[in-house]
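Before a colleague's protein record goes any further, I have to sign it off. What it holds is a sequence and that sequence's fold in token form. Would you go through it and say whether the fold makes sense for this chain? The record follows directly below this note.
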Amino acid sequence: MGQCPTCKAWGAFSEEPVIKNVSSSGAGSARRSYEQIKPVSINEINADEDERIDTGFEEFQRVLGGGIVPGSLVLIGGDPGIGKSTLLLQAAGNVAAAGRSVIYISGEESLRQIKLRADRIGRLSDNLKFVSDTDIDRITDMLGQKHPDLCIIDSIQTMHTEDAQSVPGSVTQVRECTQRLMISAKTNAIATFLVGHVTKEGTVAGPRVLEHIVDTVIYFESGDQFGYRILRSAKNRFGATNEVGVFEMREEGLREVRNPSEYLLEGRPVNATGAAVTCLIEGSRAMLLEVQGLVAETQFNLARRQANGMDYNRLSMLIAVLSKRAGLNLNALDAYVNIAGGLRVTQPAVDLAVCAALISAFKNKAIPSDTVIFGEVGLSGEVRAVPQAEERIKEAAKLGFGRVIMPEINVNGLKRSGTDVAKLGIQIEGIRYIGELFAVL
């Protein structure tokens, strides 16, 4: 079958043999009679938040929702060489150094290869044990006997069970191995991390059911231009989704970037035309970044539009709004917009900053370097409200910015909520329509 009738994905079907004989010794084959099942009330269940395991990384903690939950199953995916194994090895070292038992199971590297990588990171605790094996039945039996606090499987595509007559990495093998690890994690209260390969589209390889089985799905992404790494939560049963953590790859391993705003604005030119600073909200965190715009005379009959880091159609719409509602004629000019830092933004809160950058480039006048701009722009030229405006203002004030240009609706909302705008320590200017941006800038 070429196309899946449910999700419409092409090439998602593969022929796999049915598992007929399941070994009674495997963790996935454990059978219990109904007499062994005891229903309990909600008050009998112990779910103390203090039981979370500290990874030693504040950025990792934020993405996980405050730490590792015992018995949870976490899937982490990312491009080859992005640093998944390095991150988990460092986190495992921190957990072991705190006195907890950790087992790192690798199906891709020998023990000698792991040793060479560990030597680069630094000394590790003896509480951290290593295993090089790919048989999931032997692994689950060993975990049932050792009962570690944390287990890392690197990677799930290398694991296999003899009960499934197919090659490792196939749909059947990945699904069956993940199911058995899930039962092992829940039964023995072992926090388990699975490293997953990704497809060319950037999603975790394997059946879609894999993401439904696990408790948390995390993607490790790269900011190609400046070499930092972004840890992003796509699913989390124990915390908020869309939380991000920022890391920088060093020779000795990954280092946390605890102030990504300062990192993203590093090297920003002073008094440069076509540059505007805006503020994004990623999960519970506010981040400042720079939007760069450039307009130039076109060399073709049709003006060129190019967007790097934002949606091309969104840029075309904003240019049309500027031309129709603000009288800024860009029809005969090439227009380029770049989100500095290699990030890709989808939030409409950057609309006003994009417009400001294009106006600055068109007028060849620099926006004051202490100004932060955010707001959504509608087709009628109205500047619409954005969520969490107060957090954005506080982040701008924390980094020394003295002025914020934002939607007038948000300014009124702050006053209605009783927020003392003067105590925020920053000058706030609100606008209602895109045409007012010229005078305010």
Remarks:
- The two ends are 58 Å apart (CA to CA).
- Residues 171-188 form the longest helix (18 residues).
- Residues 263-440 form a domain with the Ribosomal Protein S5; domain 2 fold (CATH 3.30.230.10).
